[in-house]
Amino acid sequence: MGTMPDLELAQRLKARATTLRRHIVTMASGGQVIHLGGSMSCADVMAALFFHFLEVEGGERPKDHFILSKGHTVHAFHACLAELGKIEEAEFRTLAQTGTRLAGHPSLKAPLVEFATGSLGHGLSLGIGIALAERLDGLDSKTVVLMGDGELQEGSVWEAALSASNFGLTNLLAIVDRNEFQGSGAVADVQPLDPLEDKWRSFGWNTVVVDGHDMGAILEGLGRFPAKRGPTVMIAETIKGKGVPSVQGSPRAHYVSLSDEQVAEALAVLEVE
After folding, report:
1. What are the extents of the domains in the chain?
2. Contacts of 148 (CB under 8 A, 6+ apart)
3. pTM of the predicted model, to two decimals?
């Protein structure tokens, strides 16, 4: 997508992330219940991926691959599709309705979806299969898997993590949206993950921890991929429901519909970002 000074790029992507959050807030209005919290927390990372880091359709270089393993936060992905011109904003109102392309989890009916995800813990294994195939075909492409922190309680994640390092998949990047909450409460209360970075490192991964709402830090973290050896994981420390004052940083943000007042408050906050 061309080059530009780091500060200018970070500012442009931050503005894009704010736009994604406005779209997500709109999806949660009018009585529609969505997985708001995790969609809002990963918006900065999604903006960096889809509007800078990934070649989602191929062109000057081979097509990259993105797997939204935490499929319930598909609303952030749908917001990206709107900004990419792949869907119309009016289609947001069809969310989760019969026959829609915009289901409550990624659907193969929607553009740019490679796998219908939602059963947590499977995305990293899918990413390994793609990364292996791309390496065998000699393609210089990236495979990125976005996971939630609660998802890391699935044993299949760690089986996949062992395999990825065993295969030396330098073309595989895992990103953990660490917003510290899952559907049933705080991650630390359900099944603590710490020391999370040490766990990944002990499984043979290159690790980087970033502030998931600092676009400069996100870009710096992405810039450390690929490493010379092995797969890379970026742990993005985020806030659940970021941008919605009435629910952010709490389990209430996980699956919610916003009142007209909450929508207005959130849009006002996002207007000044």
Report:
1. 6-271
2. 38, 69, 70, 73, 120, 176, 177, 179, 182
3. 0.95
